From TrEMBL:
Residues 140-278 form the SIS domain. Coiled coil: none annotated. PANTHER family: GLUCOKINASE (PTHR30514), RPIR-FAMILY TRANSCRIPTIONAL REGULATOR (PTHR30514:SF18). GO terms for biological process: carbohydrate derivative metabolic process. This is RpiR family transcriptional regulator. It holds the Pfam family SIS. Residues 15-92 form the HTH rpiR-type domain. InterPro entries: Homeodomain-like_sf, HTH_RpiR, RpiR-like, SIS_dom, SIS_dom_sf, WH-like_DNA-bd_sf. One of its GO terms (molecular function) is DNA-binding transcription factor activity.
Amino acid sequence: MADDVTGVTRNPAIAELRARIRDHWDDFTPASRAVCRSLSEISPERLLYLSAAELGQASKTSNATVVRTLQSLGYAGLAELKDRVASPFQHPSRREERLRSRIESTGGDPKHVWDRVITEAIERIEFLNQHMAMDAYQEAVRLMLDAREIATYGFGANYVAAEHLTLKLRRFGRRSRCIQTAGFRLADDLLAIGADDVVIVIAPGRLVIDAEIVIDRARAVGAGIILLSEQLIAERLAADVTVAIHVPNTVTGITAEVLTTIVTTDALAQAVAAADTERTMESAHTLESLRQQLGF
């Protein structure tokens, strides 16, 4: 096998990829070897912004050959490989470099930008679906159904997902509130968490001190805790929460961080609604009556 395939790199995910290629090289067809050569020659920064179709063009093979080769190497698909490669780029010192790569990758052409966004959105949702632990999802739904109140918390862009979930749960007849404060005022909201409550913490990309304090407070009073986060955080806090659900973050920044979080919270809310149809319909009727009284 050629040296350019087995060369070293500072990115651990690329080093692992090349090791897997070396281990499987003798079993690969010429087409799969061509894909492996292309994968090994691409820099980590550029790999994050390539689609399976573009890798197929670069290796003179096809989209399907790229996917089959990656699966033979032990990856679910290109999205999983990108997720692993992106980990070192989450550090604050690499964000400017990541932004420049993101802008340059689109080439400034609106059609190219549109294709990039759609492709990454589909990849992330497929990756979410492939890696969703159904037992964790079902346990999260059970906790929400049994809760006296469901409190949601998200920081930064994920506040949108937390508020979105709270609104849907209220419309389905569930007592829910979104923790909107930070710093000094956050303590007042934490006082209201009780042992019969469930707290949903949304932190896909990173965990700030406020989010950790929310988790600590929920643990202290015996409340259930559902964590939606990327895999490393979910694994690190698995012992501190009741349920951890892996929600893949964007590896490029081309699509919104909250994309897969919104999909996951929609699935949680819909499962809660479906568990008690009568309660959901009664709440919907009441909501419609109130809107009519308000002139809507």
